[in-house]
């Protein structure tokens, strides 16, 4: 880990973790069903201890993890009370999320299902564990058909959320990730924006279609560099590394139907600027 300062979520008790000894999973025939030799497992017991038991044999081997933890809503349910002091809930989740992270393969995907009670705090905590750049999506859905506005104008919360992360979208130290991108594609996307510079407003008008304001900016003092693929076969490792380091800033330039307009599009299809 580097010594660069970074933002992190703090709470009472963070870092004061009890050491857990490795556990052994024991087969219980009375709780089993189906083929005893199948790879599937249903584990009965404390989930933290169960995760610790899985850690030794399954670290780096799980491709997809989906969890639906207690939301900390303050409600009492049949089998448990869903109310913990905020710091306690964060500690409980943090201890488990660290092990779940270790279980994932490098290209593994993680889903966490929550409502709005702890969503935003958990997002910051997951950013710290996975790295913010590995956040993929926040999926929002309505858990019932109830309207968002209740009687008397009160706002009714009917939404739930799924936070989606990938363990490693692009590891700058793993050049092998580029084996999935053919050299022809790499050569087409060989320019990258070294410095975005500053933008100056040059025109502003109202859209005739929706009445909204449209602003046009000109970029100044920007800097564009390119990656040379000369002698690629001999210098593959060095060129791939440079490509990897600038991956998020790559774009290509082309003209559309003889229109005097330049469009810069990133390798992932996102519009850089026009």
Key descriptive features of the protein:
extended; single chain; 5 helices; 4-stranded mixed sheet; alpha+beta; 29% strand; 13 strands
Order of helices and strands: HEEEHEHEEHEEEEHEEE
| Gyration radius over CA | 25 Å
Structural class: alpha+beta
How many domains make up the 3D coordinates? Answer: 2
Q: Per DSSP, what share of the residues sits in E-state strands of 2 or more residues?
A: 25-35%
Quantity of strands, as a count = 13
Shape by Cα distribution: extended
Assembly state: single chain
CATH structural architecture of the largest domain: 3-Layer(aba) Sandwich
What's the main sheet like?
A: 5 strands, antiparallel
User: How many helices?
Assistant: 5
Mean pLDDT across all residues, rounded? 79
Gap between N and C termini, in Å? 38 Å
CATH level-four homologous superfamily name of the largest domain: Vaccinia Virus protein VP39
CATH uppermost class of the largest domain: Alpha Beta
Q: What topology, given as strand order, has the largest sheet?
A: 10-7-11-12-13
List low-confidence stretches. Answer: 171-175, 256-274
Q: What percentage of residues falls in helices of 4 or more residues?
A: 10-25%
CATH topology of the largest domain: Rossmann fold
């Amino acid at each position: 880990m580097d010594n660069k300062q970074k933002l992190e979520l703090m709470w009472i008790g963070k870092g004061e973790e009890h050491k857990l000894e490795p556990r052994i999973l024991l087969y219980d025939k009375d709780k089993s069903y189906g083929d005893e030799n199948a790879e599937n497992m249903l584990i009965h017991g404390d989930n933290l201890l169960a995760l610790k038991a899985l850690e030794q044999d399954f670290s780096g081997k799980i491709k997809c993890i989906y969890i639906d933890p207690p939301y900390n809503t303050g409600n009492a349910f049949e089998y448990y009370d869903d109310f913990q002091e905020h710091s306690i809930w964060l500690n409980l989740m943090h201890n488990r999320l660290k092990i779940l992270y270790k279980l994932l393969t490098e290209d593994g995907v993680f889903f966490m299902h929550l409502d709005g009670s702890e969503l935003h705090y958990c997002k910051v905590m997951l950013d710290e564990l996975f790295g913010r750049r590995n956040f993929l999506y926040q999926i929002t859905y309505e858990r019932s058909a109830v309207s968002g506005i209740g009687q008397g104008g009160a706002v009714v919360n009917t939404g739930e959320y799924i936070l989606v992360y990938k363990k490693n979208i692009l590891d700058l130290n793993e050049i092998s990730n580029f084996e999935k991108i053919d050299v022809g594609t790499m050569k087409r996307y060989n320019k990258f924006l070294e410095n975005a510079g500053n933008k100056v407003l040059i025109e502003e008008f109202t859209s005739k279609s929706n009445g909204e304001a449209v602003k046009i900016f000109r970029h100044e003092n920007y800097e564009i560099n390119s990656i040379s693929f000369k002698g690629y076969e001999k210098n593959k490792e060095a060129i791939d590394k440079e490509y990897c380091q600038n991956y998020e800033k790559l774009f290509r330039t082309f003209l559309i139907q003889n229109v005097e307009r330049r469009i810069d599009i990133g390798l992932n299809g996102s519009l850089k600027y026009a």
